[in-house]
């Protein structure tokens, strides 16, 4: 269980809890929540609303924490290609949320052009180091949406570690360079005793092999030969890192997350892996905010079989069921049957394509269309008093 240091204020009784995920490429989770709130306030101005956008470790995780009450801290760090970027983390007392996508994500690639052999997670390490300087003793590290396949070597460098070749020179960034790794110098790494690191989101795959970080490299732009190069580098990295840290980590569930950043988090930070949206719901105080609610609205870009495999909407629905609150979902499109939705504890789904068949217009006008959807939600789930 992970929880923030400051408990959330108790919500008003009989409220509607708005806990959506993002619509990828269209709306962030906070934007989805704001549009839902705008529509519901017009339809049912007397119903209290609580906005709690959610994420599962990917893009938007830090922002979800900020909306729930964490403080945003911005700083300049190294992006995945070496260019500086302004990234943010979220902190509340001694609990921090660090989002890999903020510093080392696909969206940080200049022009969107992948650099699979040289992309680095250095900036993520710099964010973690800054969280430690701010006094964080619990760090939730969201690892979705990464652009690099460097096994988390950059993460270690961002924390002060050095990766050296046979001549004692620092390795250049990226997974390909790891083939020349000869030694590690960890003397400048921070003292992590007493620090808890939670790895949130990402895949449950191991570091190496057919399902490892290099094998999934094509998602980050790697071709067949580049996958072979990256796998060789990751294997060399795993051998020396495990010898230095004495923590066998390459085969652990989640070691392959974010191009192997999960491996480095296990080996060097002593992290534990908590897949799905559960850790973030705990962090955001979901259970407290759901108490006394009359309805929970969740959702995401598409409701399909991928949703059933651990996307935030299902995690929210299950948590809502535990709280005894009905849960409905909004989405751009639906690919699930009513029975599949019910098994996922989602009692109804409202999708943009129900009111606008043109998918392109759904993307362009997602916000206003979401507000239109709230009319049906209000009619069916929030009848006026006395009705």
Beta-strand percent range = 15-25%
Structural class: alpha/beta
The spatial strand order of the largest sheet comes to: 3-4-5-6-9-10
Largest sheet: 6 strands, mixed
Averaged pLDDT: 92
How many beta strands in the DSSP annotation? 13
Q: What is the H/E string? A: EHEHEEEHHEHEEEHHEHHEHHEHEHHH
Instruction: Give the N-to-C terminal Cα separation.
Output: 42 Å
Q: Name the CATH class of the largest domain.
A: Alpha Beta
Helix content: 25-40%
Key terms for this structure?
387 residues; alpha/beta; Rossmann fold; Glycerate kinase, domain 2; 2 domains; six-stranded mixed sheet; five-stranded parallel sheet; 15 helices; 13 strands
How would you summarize what this structure contains?
The chain has 387 residues and is an alpha/beta fold. It contains 15 helices and 13 strands.
What does this 3D model show about the protein?
The protein is α/β, with parallel strands linked by helices. The chain folds into 2 domains: 16-54 and 284-381, Glycerate kinase, domain 1 (Rossmann fold, 3-Layer(aba) Sandwich), CATH 3.40.50.10350; 61-274, Glycerate kinase, domain 2 (Alpha-Beta Complex), CATH 3.90.1510.10. The protein has 15 helices and 13 strands. Strands 3-4-5-6-9-10 form a 6-stranded mixed β-sheet, with helices on both faces. It has a 5-stranded parallel β-sheet with strand order 2-1-11-12-13, sandwiched between helices. Helix 6 (224-245) runs parallel beside helix 7 (257-269). It starts with 15 loop residues before the first strand and ends in a 6-residue tail after the last helix.
């Amino acid at each position: 269980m992970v929880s923030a240091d400051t408990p959330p204020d108790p919500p008003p009784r009989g409220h509607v809890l708005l806990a959506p995920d993002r619509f990828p490429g269209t709306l962030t989770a906070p934007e989805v929540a704001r549009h839902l709130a705008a529509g519901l306030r017009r339809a049912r101005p007397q119903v209290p609303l609580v906005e709690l956008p959610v994420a599962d470790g990917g893009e938007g995780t830090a922002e979800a924490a900020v909306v729930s009450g964490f403080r945003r801290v911005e700083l300049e760090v190294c992006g995945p290609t070496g260019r500086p970027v302004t990234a943010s983390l979220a902190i509340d007392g001694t609990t921090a949320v660090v989002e890999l996508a903020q510093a080392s994500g696909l969206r940080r690639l200049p022009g969107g052009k992948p650099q699979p052999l040289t992309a680095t997670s250095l900036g993520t390490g710099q964010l973690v180091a800054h969280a430690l300087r701010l006094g964080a003793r619990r760090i939730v590290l969201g690892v979705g949406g990464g652009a690099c396949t460097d096994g988390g070597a950059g993460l270690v460098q961002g924390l002060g570690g050095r990766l050296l070749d046979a001549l004692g020179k620092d390795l250049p960034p990226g997974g390909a360079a790891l083939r020349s790794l000869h030694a590690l110098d960890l003397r400048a790494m921070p003292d992590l005793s007493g620090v808890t690191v939670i790895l949130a989101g990402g895949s449950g795959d191991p570091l190496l092999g057919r399902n490892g970080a290099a094998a999934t490299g094509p998602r980050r732009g790697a071709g067949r030969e580049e996958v072979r190069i990256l796998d060789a580098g990751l294997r060399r990295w795993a051998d020396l890192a495990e010898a230095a840290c004495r923590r066998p980590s390459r085969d652990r569930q989640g070691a392959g997350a974010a191009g192997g950043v999960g491996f480095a988090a296990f080996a060097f930070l002593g992290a534990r892996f908590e897949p799905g949206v559960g850790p973030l719901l705990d962090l955001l105080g979901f259970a407290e905010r759901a108490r006394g609610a009359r309805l929970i609205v969740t959702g995401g870009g598409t409701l399909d079989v991928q949703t059933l495999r651990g996307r935030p909407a299902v995690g929210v629905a299950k948590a809502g069921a535990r709280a005894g609150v009905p849960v409905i979902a909004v989405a751009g499109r639906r690919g699930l049957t009513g029975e599949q939705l019910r098994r996922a504890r989602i009692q109804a789904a409202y999708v943009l394509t129900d009111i606008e068949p043109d998918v392109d217009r759904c993307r362009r006008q997602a916000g206003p269309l979401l507000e239109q959807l709230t009319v049906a939600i209000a009619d069916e789930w929030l009848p006026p008093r006395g009705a």
